[in-house]
Amino acid sequence: MEKECSQCKQIRDELCFYTNKDGKFGLTSKCKDCIQYNARLRRRGLYISKGRKGINRAEKNGMWRGDGVKYSGLHLWIKSHLKKPDCCQGCGEKTSKLDLANISQEYKRELNDWEWLCRRCHMNKDGRTGNLLVGKVKRRDLLV
Ligand SMILES: [Zn+2]
Ligand SMILES: [Zn+2]
C-alpha cells in the first residue's frame, strides 16, 4: 500500500510511515523522514507550530522569574560573603536581629555597598530614601 505524506506530499510506501492506531489506515499522516526532520528542528528550538502563543507566554514568565532569581541570588551572595557581625553597623548596638541593607540603593554586587543593620537603623535608612514617608520619618528621627 502507498500513501501520501501530509508534509512533503510524496507518495510513499506504507513502510515509510510509523504505525499510529489513531491515524488513517493505522499510520501516521507524515512519513518517517518528515517526522524525524521535525523532531530535529524541535530539539534545536526551531520548530514553530500551533503552540506558538504558549511558548511566548512561557518565555515571559521565565523572564519574570529570572529577575527574581537574580535579585535573591545577589542577596544570597552578599549574605555568604559579608559575615554577619554581632552588632549593628549603624548604631553599634549588640543584637542578633540584623538585616542586610543596601547602601547606594543600586544593589551592586560589591560588599562595600552593603551593611548589616538592626531593625531600627534599617527602618530609618529606608525611610530617609522614601519620599512619601518624609513627614513620618522626620518625627521618628527626632525620637531616635
Ligand atoms: Zn514526508
Ligand atoms: Zn542600629
Fold blueprint:
Blueprint: E1 2-4, E2 11-13, E3 17-19, E4 27-31, H1 32-43, H2 52-81, E5 98-102, E6 114-118, H3 119-129, H4 134-143
Antiparallel strand pairs: 1-2, 3-4, 5-6
Helix pairs in contact: 3-4
The protein binds zinc ion (2 copies).
Descriptive account of the structure:
There is one protein chain. 44% of the residues lie in helices and 17% in strands. By secondary structure, the chain is of the alpha+beta class. The protein folds into 2 domains: 2-43, no CATH class; 52-143, no CATH class. The strands form 3 sheets. Strands 1-2 form a two-stranded antiparallel sheet. β1 (2-4) and β2 (11-13) form a beta hairpin. α3 (119-129) runs antiparallel to α4 (134-143). The chain starts with a strand and ends with a helix. Residues 51-66 and 131-140 have low confidence and may be disordered. Bound molecules: zinc ion (2 copies). One zinc ion (ZN) binds next to β6 and α3.
